[in-house]
Amino acid sequence: MANSMLKYFKPLTISFISISIIAVVAFNYLGTKSKSDYNTQVKPIINRKCIACHGGVKKQGGFSFLFEDEAKAKLKSGKYAIVPFKPNESELIARINSKDDEERMPHNHNPLSKDEISVFTQWIKQGAPWGIHWAYETVKQPEIPGIHSDWAKNNIDKYVLQNLKKESYTPSSSASAPILARRAALDIIGFQAPDSITLDFTQNPSDKTYEEFIDKLLSSPHYGEKWTSMWLDLARYADTKGYEKDANRSIWKYKNWLINAFNDDMPYDQFLKEQIAGDLIPNATDEELLATAFNRNTMTNDEGGTDNEEFRTAAVIDRVNTTWQTLMGTTFACVQCHSHPYDPFKHEDYYKFMAYFNNTRDADTEEEYPWLRHFKPEQKRSLDSLTEWLSNKISAEEVKSVETFIKTLGPSFYSMECDQYVNSSLIDTKWLSLRENGSVRMPQVPLDNNDQLVLTYQPYVKSGYVQFRLGELNGPIIAEIKWNKPMKGWNKIAIPLKTILGRQDVYITLVNGDIVNKDAPAVLFNWFHFTKKFPGTGDKEYLFYEKKYWDLLNAETVYTPILMENPKPYSRTTQVFERGNWLVKSDTVSPGLPEIFNHGSIKNPKSRMDLAEWMTAADNPLTARVIVNRFWEQIWGTGLVETLEDFGSQGANPKNQELLDYLAYHFIYTHHWSLKALLKEILMSATYRQDSKMTAEARKKDLFNELLARGPRVRLSAEQIRDQTLAACGLIDSIYEGPPVMPYQPEGVWESPYNSRKWVKSKGKNQYLRSLYTFWKRTAAYPSMTNFDATGREVCVARRIRTNTPLQALTILNDSVYIDLASQLVKASEASSPEATISKAYHLVTGKDIDDTRMQLLRKLYYESYIHFLRSDQIIGTTKTKALNLVANTILNLDEVITKS
Amino acid sequence: MELNEKYLAELKKSFIQEQTRRHFIKGSFLGLGGLAMGSILGSCKNPISANYASTLNPFALKPPHFVPKAKSVIYLHMAGAPSQLELFDYKPELIKMDGQLCPPSYLEGKKFAFIRGVPKMLGTTAKFKQYGQSGAWISNYLPHLQTIADELCILKSVTTDQFNHAPAQLMMHTGGARLGRPSMGSWATYGLGTENQDLPAFVVLTSGGNNPDAGKSVWGSGFLPSVYQGVQCRSAGDPVLFLQDPPSISRDLRKSSIDAINQINQLEYAEQGDPETLSRIQQYELAYRMQISVPEVMDIKSEPQYIHDMYGTNPGKATFANNALLARKLVESGVRYVQLFDWGWDTHGNVAEGSIDVGLVNKCRQIDKSITALILDLKQRGLLDSTLLVWGGEFGRTPMAENREGVANAFKGRDHHAEAFTMFMAGGGIKKGTTYGETDEIGYTVTKGRLNPHDIQATILNQLGFDHEKFTYEFQGRPYRLTDVEGKVINDILA
Question: How far is C-alpha A639 from the chain's CA centre?
């Protein structure tokens, strides 16, 4: 019965498959009464029927199924729900069998089926052995299926074949060389490769020429661009800060860091370590610092009147959620408010984990400090000579701190951290402003025996006098600023500071000034850096090097927001937020992992660096599985675990767990975290090389290609659709390193309040850069890309969901970008006859030679439009081109063009 | 049968598998053998997962949980937050206190966006009277609306927990203050589909020169499939981005090129056998039809002069009046959810345009006549009963004058205020001529009938036929709803 249902429903719609699976499981229960497996039999019933009331959110009757110790503990009633080996003494069994509606569980729901009851009974009889969810178990060395087949090219194929045999299925034949060449090029570099690269393979297809072709593509710099496009979704990369004003942000250098890392095939473990904790690597290089911009892609709120601590906290929470969701395939966000409803994570675990990220110097400042300032070569040389000179004067540690300050403007105290405002305010909730007789407190700043204060201020009055007083409003003066000429904009100055030990309160007061309007700001302050005096007074080179110091400090540079761990005096404690409300704080927690993950080679990581080590340890059960699954998804359109973002017990079950584990294990131990090697292994498989044609039988039996009995067939991403057109027109050049560009965009898309920035079309070549270089505005992302399922990237995008809509058709038909590119394609395809041009244009985007039927259809369109334009324009000169442009645009719209097959 | 099959099945597979499993199994009175279409429809908790018909088209009509009162929604959002104290919430006591320092009891433990120290109380300069049989208080800022007081249901006791624009707007439309949740229009079209397949199901129109503070996320689809996001239609330029053919391409040529695309796609299907290709053919046909139907419905010039006079329209401009008329046309053509945002209601008193006695009067003039016209126009066409109209901002304004940075502002203005504001509804099965809820004598806090955005959302969903507690979507391992873990239908205002 159940099996016939399965046959009937499966081809109709996949939703029914879940039913069918349950039907099959139910079947198994009957057949395997002797043994109940926790993970495959017991846990699914718990998740479905019990955990809503007895889990991480509610614990009715004091009973929860989430953790073994809780489940086997004494209930409120004094009884035990589960008494191992003794179903008759277990309250659980009594309750699910009860005839009394008030007693019977699930309460107010239909009783469990006989089979379900027997699963529980049998399981308790076995001693109620708890299991660990598959994805939380370390990947074990897999046993490669002992299948001998001429078809198989590598081990992937053996796993696939093993599955196919079970279903009495056979693989498809191999795809033709031009199709395979296009498929591989789209997967490696993101667009159809030119003939000059494909010809060796397509004219003489063999394993050898195919491998050479793959190697050529893997060594192309465009490989890095293509895979960076993917990573930007995970990094929630955008060129704006988000929220109301959604003002611009300078973080594009991080994009180039990614491109280089991918192209250099930086091992994935190192790739993650640098992005998570590059700043904590001893003597971190600029590149390692730049990598941490990964976590500065969180949003910053510039809206006036907002609570800066609230949005700093929101950014930290985002870092936690992104780490789990995109890098470790775990839904952790729900733990923010309560224990995980289904997976073994306690409410407190969230905040223990947050503590790893909660101690960085960034806050919700307008300028997004701290920065990595990117110096030009001559500035770099200047900095080198300065540090060399300094190292003869002061300790290495002190030199390092001067260098760090010059490079990052940190660590600094931000004016938004002040309190006790009198005749003063945090203007627009951003900068400290003092009015007549104004004062403010800087709570617990690190005086620490420092003797100099470097600060930024902006006087609005001609002259003024500001004092810094220790401990209280009329405490001793420890520093002062006087000015007596008008100044414009922000100014950096260094003032002497009395040496005081430790952390103390300091009050800033505006003593007097040339004040015209007592209600208007007289002076603004931005940040304060407590440090040591520039050394070497008296040295004959003192002035020379001191000038270098100030020149570097004041230099206008490209910069990138980065992570900087708080030095001791600034360190924060982390507290649990009651029910996720950041205003209601309870217990203080130290950094730590959920218990289930604390059993590997790295236990109790203490710092963000330790955390990165734990994430990339060979025995971390999630990191490798998640990335190989993501690569698989990029190639096949669906992951081996379909829910890329959720490997937990509520996520989709792996379609071929043995294959997933094989890939993960070899990724770590054979490929040593090399992503290029992983990609190559997948692409070299016979499985990948199959034809993607779908027979009527395949549509019926395996619509979603879960068995992998045919090659991948997936609609291209938003970026690929535009990029392959650029490539066909011969417009793709070398890697671009520069601020984001603005290709054509219709008027009126950018209309953020209080933000005068305009979309100004880039000039010349910059209009035709690959899509990953296009300016990404969070509240108004590039519309033709969002029509193809790109998002605003307000938060990380763990998975883009492909849709198929009329707006997509309208985009390629009418967006000026594609109209323009169609004409460029005609130019690139110039030939002796219209037919020859059409044929060439078709070849440039598909890599295939056009067949007669297609040619006839396009030729017909050509002549029809030729006649139309001839009639309407009465000029022969442009008629031909116009008609060809329309045909080229038609080609760009074809399903076979926007699909990888 | 195959048409769209893969796409929709995939949609379902990707999103609804878990939910489906839970919901289907819950209704286990069916038993496994009893799964048949009719019974699935009967046990439907989630329309898209349970209604097999929907698998043919994500916008196919789907039945909600119960018979709906309203078929469509027009939501008028005044972005920036209009002052309730100048428009509906009449407070003579506050007028008496005008200019006095705010009593400390109002400030203790309170946090404001811009008020610092001790501000002064600010009485209104608007003139209030009661109107209609219901005796609703409406100020002289809204002279047209006064004439239809008996059509309105005024909610004086709305509160929120956000006092910054972007998060408060998100709260109002997505049920959460952070980005990433689906908007109400996405939920509605996901749950109900739409009647006119040639028009977008969820249309957004903006006026006032800026997008709302929270950007396009207030009409985003969040974690729902992106087909359900609002389509921004524009009264100036292309009504939908990329809708218009390039200048040299005539309709005939467009038809020929789409024919060529679809013929080649047919070949592709014959060769490759991917149902997705068939779906693409259908999308190109739909795109071609939209190119005709959207400009038609978006063209207000064809409306008779008396309609233009009634609304105060100005064709070709992105005005609120034009958008109000468009809202009627869209609903009339079967669009499910129409969302209007009008920007410029943030009356802090720091500039004249942002003051309660100058800027606010001008803003009211821009909307008063056209909202009144919209309600009367819907009524005369017999559409008001099936159309729920909602008006409001994202929060209210303080009874105190704003003193930004602790200094009195240059003009009369009020700070953001989350603890009391006014919204109104009309049509769509809502009791007319009603006023619900009360605030204290200065309009500072709610004293009776406290409402929050989730209550408003629960009520809107209720009028569309949904039990907001059961209308869920599985994401990140848990079922999400528009109303989060809150929300009560405001039963007292249902007709």
Answer: 17
